[in-house]
Amino acid sequence: MPRTLHPIAWWIWGIGLATAVSRTTNPLLLGLVLVVLGYVVTERRTDAPWAKGFKYYLWLALTVIVIRVAFRCVFASGITPADHIMFSLPHIPTPHWYAGIQLGGPVSLEATLSAAVDGLRLACLLCCIGAANTLANPKRALRVLPGALYELGVAVTVSMSVAPQLVESVQRVARARRLRADRARGLRALRSIVIPVLEDALERSLYLAAAMDSRGYGRAGNATRASRRATGALMLVGMLGLCTGVYGLLDGTTPRALGLPAMLAGSLLCCAGLALGGRRVRRTSYRPDPWRAAEWVVAGFGCATAAVLFLTVGYSASDLNPSLYPLRWPSLPLLPAAAVLLAGVAAFAAPPPARTPGRATATSQQAGRKAGKSGRTGTSGRTGKAGTSAAPGNSAPAPTSAQDTDDNHREALL
Description:
- The protein starts with 6 loop residues before the first helix and ends with a helix.
- It is 60% helix and 3% strand.
- Helix 7 packs across helix 8 and helix 7 packs across helix 15.
- Strands 1-2 form a two-stranded antiparallel ribbon.
- With 414 residues, the chain is mainly α.
- 22% of the residues are buried.
- It is built from 15 helices and 2 strands.
């Protein structure tokens, strides 16, 4: 039965893949992660406008790789006699206080490949977060947060909604430009796109501020000053305990009391702070998202992938981080590759998302108009000037929902 998967399940799945990516520099495994992410997003994304923004994360990932390689070529360092020199850049002399950094010089194949692999790992991390942000609605994830973290959750939700809202604004402006037969491309079209997008972002921020104020966001409620101070003290000491416990577990030279005991004590203090702070927040949830077997399977696959690559049991740890000296083709470890493919089963385990009838009808009508336009040999009925309207045969379909009516209103204003 079509339904929307719980957003926390998608975020656990995405964070699990991100944890697995942080453990490896094998380009074959990183490429396999990108394939799995693209397949799952293609199969289980909704028809919302912001759900089509995964391609923008891919472009951002490609930009990160290019910048990382360019910086490594310009700031040449760590060249060994055994490296394969591809070309040399003009050397720029630097002052004595800038010692250790070389601008220009020989560029080796090993250094370039190392920079590309590092950039690919960072790109995969961005794509993991982008996939979770594309598949899950962050506003729905706000419902399951504890009461004490409600205000912090709202701030995080607003910040994470920036990228989807920008994607939606760009798509809306692009539709309005097509309706007005605006054929400008490249830098000439930048001004006609950026200004409406910024105006739309400002309008959304004002609507959000008014909605938050009308719902009493930031009100202290019935909490006393002593209660707020006790909550802050418990949370602060608990976070310090968690940080100390993590440091003690990662560093084997520290005393045992700074490891697992400190982490458990910090966790208990944080839970106490959350319980005490949650008393001053009274919230109700309309139609809460269910957590069923599909959510357990999707979240479990993400955690299983992270556990396999984190524990390094059953395979050699060198397979996750192959060396470039000597230069050779990396091998694909079977168990980590199977774990990454296991995360791709989420495309089948998750239920198909529910489609909005109005959007589906509008999409089919637009496809029919494009097919009819491609079959005609005459003119398209548009004058080719910005600001003119299309011919009656190419007019937009009638709105089928309140959201479509609002979109058409915005496009008319743009």
